[in-house]
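Sample intake sheet
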Amino acid sequence: MTTPITLLQITRQNTLSAIAGLSLDQVNKIPTGFSGNIAWHLGHMVATNQGLLYRLSGHSGNLDAAFVELYKKGSVPSAPINQTEFDFIKSALVQQIIQLQKDVDSGIFKTYSEYTTSYGNTIQNFDQALFFVNVHESLHLGYVMALKRVVLQ
């Protein structure tokens, strides 16, 4: 059985593969009928990972509050991102998983503040949060795939 962290790593690899070769203009494009773009979905995956796994476990994580604000639940792209921010997000998609494994191995996730997601699921502990993060990121990978299909037309 694949562990939840390995599954998360696979989802992120699939996400990075899905966007390989896309231009900055393509990841910033908001097609008609969509409220976000590929760049926002990637940033949202990074920001939500920190919120659901770290913040609700009583840890600050390593993302700047301004970044989280741009990509938190309920936000929409306010402006196109530049190449530096795009490179940061792509790197964070990989680095977060490496850090997460280290943090799980070190045993830092001892407490958790219960949280009910907009998906309608109540998370009561870190293990449930990790399970839900996989559901959440798979959902956003689906959006990325749909957006890619439209921006490449």
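Comment: The chain has six helices and two strands. The beta strands are 115-116, 122-123.
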